[in-house]
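hiii, so i know i said id send this last week but things got crazy w the move. better late than never?? heres the sequnce for the chain we talked about at the cafe, plus the structure i predicted for it. fair warning i was half asleep when i ran it
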Amino acid sequence: MRIAKAGGAAAVWLQRAANAIGGTLFLMLFVVFVIQITARFGLNQPLPWSDEAAVVLYLWVIMWAAAVVVPTREHVVFDLVWNSVGPRARQAMAIAGHLMMGGLALTGLPATWDYVYFMRREGTPVLELSMMWVFMPLVLLMVALVLRSAWAIWQAARGVGLQTELRL
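okay and structure toks below
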């Protein structure tokens, strides 16, 4: 589910903001990567901070995109069984699958938060960023999984999104 599909001008604005944040994170990663390559191979002076910044930004880019940018319909799926059953079976499969995914994410969320919050006391070796901020996108991803699953269950219960072919 894309945020914008939920409806309303505010939802469209939120989706655009999420895309802009994701794009900015990716641009920052690209700039750090270019600086890193230039310093290491062009100037023969590796920069210790660039490796660390690239890893942190990579984590943020991947988790942010999975949480709020990439729509569910664009995730990789194995739909051989899905396409071979009728609408009622697809509805049951969708509800059961999202109950499992959302339930697991909801069950793991408190422990994930506890770990991320615990890591606030540690810092990265070079930039001394709090490890809480390094791992925060995992919490965002878990929350997004719970919310997306709840929304998908609601949609499936109403019979929405149960078609057999992929619609882009």
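btw The helical segments are 9-42, 48-69, 80-84, 87-118, 131-157. thought thatd interest u
miss u guys!!
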